[in-house]
């Protein structure tokens, strides 16, 4: 009698290429492997729901996983814009706006994962302190302190250590 692991391995080996082709036709190369991996993670987690003929179920799972990826990408873009809006001062020029958004994204990337998560829960997910604290698994006071420190670290990361290249190009004093 085949074990669950044996059945999973068979499903994976028989259908990985088909699922990958399905995803590759619908997504950028950069996310294909992640999406396919997520599909098979869903298979493992919901193994009892996988039908005897799994390919159509795998395609439906891939479709939902791709939709989640698109929503996540859209939310990441919106988060960068929101954080840039909150962190930046008035920006007169579109080029400076782009530089600001890129700077915020780079600053966010340099923060620790807990700091990023605290900022995301409030700025991206739009949660209030009570909801964000519950999502983070801590008290409101602890989360408020975590958020305060994360915002402080983000501001520190946002300070220019070198002159703004756009200002230097225009010949303005630095």
From TrEMBL:
Q: Is ATP-binding included in the keywords of this UniProt record?
A: no
Q: Which GO terms describe its biological process?
A: DNA-templated transcription initiation
Sorted alphabetically, which PANTHER family does this protein's record hold? RNA POLYMERASE ECF-TYPE SIGMA FACTO, RNA POLYMERASE SIGMA FACTOR RFAY-RELATED
A Pfam family recorded for this sequence: Sigma70_r4_2
User: Is Ion transport given among the entry's keywords?
Assistant: no
* Annotated Gene3D superfamilies: 1.10.1740.10, Winged helix-like DNA-binding domain superfamily/Winged helix DNA-binding domain
**Annotated RNA polymerase sigma-70 region domain residues:** 11-76
Q: Tell me where in this chain the RNA polymerase sigma factor 70 region 4 type domain is found.
A: 104-154
Q: Which organism is it from?
A: Paractinoplanes rishiriensis
Q: Known InterPro entries for this protein?
A: RNA_pol_sigma-70-like, RNA_pol_sigma-70_dom, RNA_pol_sigma70_r2, RNA_pol_sigma70_r4_t2, RNA_pol_sigma_r2, RNA_pol_sigma_r3/r4-like, WH-like_DNA-bd_sf
The upper taxonomy is: Bacteria, Bacillati, Actinomycetota, Actinomycetes, Micromonosporales
- Report what the protein is called: Siderophore-interacting protein
Q: Per its UniProt record, what NCBIfam families does this chain match?
A: sigma70-ECF
């Amino acid at each position: 009698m085949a074990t669950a692991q044996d059945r999973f391995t068979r499903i994976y080996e028989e259908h990985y290429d088909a699922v990958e082709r399905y995803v590759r036709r619908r997504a950028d190369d950069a996310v294909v492997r992640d999406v396919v991996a997520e599909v098979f993670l869903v298979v493992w987690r919901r193994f009892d729901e996988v039908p005897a003929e799994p390919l159509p179920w795998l395609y439906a799972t891939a479709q939902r996983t791709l939709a989640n990826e698109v929503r996540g990408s859209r939310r990441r873009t919106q988060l960068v814009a929101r954080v840039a809006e909150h962190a930046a001062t008035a920006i007169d020029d579109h080029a400076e706006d782009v530089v600001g958004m890129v700077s915020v994204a780079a600053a966010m990337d340099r923060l620790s994962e807990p700091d990023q998560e605290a900022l995301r829960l409030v700025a991206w997910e739009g949660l209030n302190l009570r909801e964000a604290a519950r999502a983070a698994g801590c008290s409101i006071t602890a989360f408020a302190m975590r958020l305060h420190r994360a915002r402080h670290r983000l501001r520190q990361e946002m300070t220019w250590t070198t002159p703004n290249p756009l200002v230097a190009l225009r010949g303005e004093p630095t």
